[in-house]
Design goal:
The protein is of the alpha/beta class and 148 residues long. It is 34% helix and 17% strand. The protein contains four helices and five strands. The chain has helices spanning 18-35, 62-65, 93-106, 121-134; strands at 70-77, 80-85, 88-90, 111-115, 139-141. It has a five-stranded mixed beta sheet with strand order 3-2-1-4-5, covered by helices on one side. It starts with 17 loop residues before the first helix and ends in a 7-residue tail after the last strand.
Length: 148
């Protein structure tokens, strides 16, 4: 098949415009730069390991080994709020925070929060906030039988 000529003896040359091709190349370049992840390899990430006891997991105290949940109850006696944690009385909110911190470091256990109806809201909120402060976020409220 003979190629058509433009009135001269030169054959017709087909050429593609370069501008759209360059636009596509730059769009691909921008796409790959935006979707690339520049995370360092895992072996280069810093790791904070304990200085002693490497390879030996620490055992919780015997009274906490079988603990599946934390029971926190607030009661009102003699115009004063009394606190008990897992059935044991707690002297005040400072001691409650200390004990909750120790429990939160062992495991992320659910907290069953059981305030009596006559306990002031301020004390309930303070105990609830202490649970959140130490990192115990799975807090469930206890209900009495017959209540919704």
């Amino acid at each position: 098949m003979k190629l058509p000529t433009l009135g001269r003896d030169k054959p017709f040359e087909a050429s593609a415009p370069m501008t759209p091709l360059i636009d596509v190349v730059f769009q691909l370049l921008v796409y790959f730069l935006c979707t690339a992840s520049f995370n360092p390899p895992e072996f280069q990430l810093p790791a904070n390991l304990p200085a002693t006891g490497i390879g030996q997991p620490s055992e919780p105290p015997p009274e906490l080994q079988e603990l599946e949940l934390i029971e926190l109850s607030l009661r009102r006696e003699n115009h004063r709020t009394t606190i008990s944690l897992n059935g044991e009385p707690v002297a005040g909110f400072a001691e409650l925070e200390r004990k909750l911190r120790a429990l939160a470091q062992l495991a992320a256990l659910p907290v069953i929060f059981d305030p009596a109806p006559d306990v002031p809201i301020a004390d309930m909120v303070k105990a609830y906030d202490l649970c959140l402060l130490v990192g115990l976020t799975d807090i469930r409220f206890a209900t009495r039988s017959g209540e919704p």
